[in-house]
Design brief:
Length: about 425
């Protein structure tokens, strides 16, 4: 059985993915750059199809959950238009076209709740929407496209105190499991955010807002995937998570013209055929029963060195598994991988080229500020600049309104 799985991967992979497999797992050198990747796997946007080369910019100035909201116990609000402009200018000059930025994380700064522990959502604080609008206007100025991550899996960790992580930190599993509380988030936070005016648009119609990520790495808090994080005091079932994702996705699709995704922790949970994977749990078939228009517009997987596996029994690496080998039926972005290429067996240039060669639709390094041991922009700037220059035809995103679908992805809408 293991032999048949291995042969299936080799047969389904394209010639490019076979070359990457041999180079990465046997020589551990930089994958050979393909002349051009298939436009069928790139991400449709406007009238074009693009490779979204980007950077994660979590918790600006150290403000986890306070980038846009305010942790009221400490008066902590860390968004800075000046720091954002400096960062965007630097990224733009390197050919970066997109950034992924977290909004609510565990709920400590935003939205506002009716109770210190859990509670329904009552609104957004005064700093939140103006700060988002500022970031969007700067993104437009520097030709960058934003992906906003609504929630992190830490939203179901234990609640805290004013002197800990803030009284609204964690314990928000009710938004996932309780329909009334979930609707309070949609009505009092999500829809006002989509409707907020920004320079002749709303946030929900602004062309520099590429997409919304419903939740980061939800697999760690789902009870029936054998991956439960021990810190999750309010774990949820896969069905409950599917409903949460689908209903929020549906609300976004009905009230904006932007895309939706989920930040899957690994290809292990986003593929039916990647070597040793458990299955694709974010397919249309999984989400559409809860909301017909609640499906994802593109997939997003994360990659760190522990996913390399042995290459015989299992591997969740996008360098090992091409889009074809993983049977991915939507454009797929590698939404996190180490900016310093730590423990991956190659360098950053090898990561970028391997991801591109294997048919993925984008790559976002983790992270700009170096919030952990996976490197920062200083570790990735040279390789990112070189990669973007080599692939300007796919990375120099231009926006144009198409008569047939405005700028929604035609594969979905």
């Amino acid at each position: 059985m293991k032999l048949r799985v291995k042969l299936s991967v080799l047969l389904w992979g394209t010639a490019v993915s076979l070359l990457t497999l041999v180079i990465f797992y046997h020589a551990h050198s930089t994958p050979v750059l393909a002349e051009q990747t298939s436009v069928d796997t790139l991400l449709p946007y406007g009238c074009g199809q693009w490779f979204f080369s980007g950077v994660n910019i979590p918790w600006q100035n150290g403000g986890f959950g306070a980038d846009f909201g305010t942790v009221e116990e400490w008066g902590q609000h860390t968004y800075s238009a000046g720091a954002t402009e400096t960062m965007f200018a630097e990224l733009s000059s390197a050919g970066v076209n997109s950034v992924r930025w977290w909004l609510f994380t565990d709920g400590r700064g935003a939205p506002e709740f009716s109770a210190n522990s859990g509670g329904s959502v009552t609104g957004l604080d005064a700093n939140f929407l103006p700060s988002m609008a500022s970031a969007i206007q700067l993104a437009q100025e520097y030709d960058l496209y934003l992906v906003f991550t609504l929630w992190d899996f830490s939203m179901v960790f234990a609640d805290s105190t004013a002197f800990g992580s803030g009284e609204h930190s964690g314990f928000h599993g009710n938004l996932i499991t309780n329909s009334t509380d979930r609707q309070s988030f949609i009505n009092n936070a999500l829809l006002p955010m989509l409707d907020y005016p920004v320079g002749g648009y709303t946030i929900g119609t602004h062309p520099n807002v590429l997409a919304w990520e419903i939740i980061n790495e939800p697999e760690w808090i789902i009870t029936n995937l054998n991956a439960l994080d021990g810190r999750a005091v309010q774990p949820v079932t896969l069905a409950q998570m599917h409903r949460f994702v689908a209903e929020l996705s549906s609300a976004i699709h009905q009230n904006s013209n932007q895309m939706v995704t989920v930040g899957s922790a690994s290809l292990k949970w986003n593929s039916d055929t990647a070597l040793g994977a458990d299955g694709n749990f974010w397919s249309d078939a999984d989400l559409s029963p809860y909301a017909a228009d609640g499906t994802l517009d593109f997939y997003q997987i994360h990659y760190y060195g522990w996913m390399n596996g042995d290459g015989v029994n299992w591997s969740y690496s996008p360098l090992f598994n091409s889009v074809s080998a993983a049977s991915l039926d939507k454009p797929t972005i590698v939404g996190e991988f180490p900016a310093n290429a730590s423990d991956t067996g190659t360098n950053l240039s090898g990561l970028l080229n391997g991801i591109y060669n294997n048919g993925y639709a984008g790559a976002w390094t983790w992270s700009y500020d170096g919030v952990d041991g996976n490197g920062s922009w200083s570790n990735s700037a040279a390789a990112m600049t070189s990669f973007n220059q080599a692939h300007q035809g796919q990375t120099a995103v231009t926006f144009a309104t198409c008569s047939n679908h405005v700028y929604l992805p035609s594969i979905v809408k």
